[in-house]
């Protein structure tokens, strides 16, 4: 499948999954909206779960790219870290179909995506810290705290079905990180 067509199928699928849910989106609907044959879909994705996996993998690739960009911006450490966290929350907010309680707990592909996202994101957070300036235990505590905070926001998005407000999330992130700055070794990293 040509790259353009592949990406078109992914874009159409994501839109349909978000709009109607996974269970109410048929492969025929995806094929029709993407202007490809049903056979093309099955030959390239295998089945609906393969389409879901491709949608999630493309979004994970985008997150990896964002992490690489933000991690490279070490001169703007605090802002880059906040932007990275907000980018992750935007991703979860964008993929509304993965928080569908009826489906998301039943599909291993969605559980696998969440695990991969957490691994990639943790690695991204670790790349923010200069190990020579921050003790491993402090780094672990800060990352664990950030992951718990993010998990709480994601839970609220999924349970209440609400879009998150990046301004209030930004305030929460600022408060959380600034609470660590009181420790002198954290202060060196953030200032």
What portion of the residues fall into strands of 2 or more residues? Answer: under 5%
Gyration radius, rounded: 19 Å
How many beta-strand runs? 0
Q: Which spans have pLDDT < 50 for at least 5 consecutive residues?
A: none
Helix % is: over 70%
Structural class: mainly alpha
Q: Mean pLDDT across all residues, rounded? A: 82
Number of helices: 10
**What is the terminal-to-terminal distance?**
49 Å
What can be said about the biggest beta sheet?
A: none
* Helix-strand string: HHHHHHHHHH
Coarse morphology = elongated
Task: Explain this structure.
- With 191 residues, the chain is mainly α.
- Helices cover 79% and strands 0% of the residues.
- The protein has helices at 3-20, 27-34, 38-45, 48-72, 77-94, 101-104, 108-128, 136-160, 166-181, 184-190.
Quick gist of this model?
The protein is mainly alpha-helical.
Write the layout of secondary structure elements.
Layout: H1 3-20, H2 27-34, H3 38-45, H4 48-72, H5 77-94, H6 101-104, H7 108-128, H8 136-160, H9 166-181, H10 184-190
Helix pairs in contact: 1-2, 1-4, 4-5, 4-7, 5-8, 5-9, 8-9
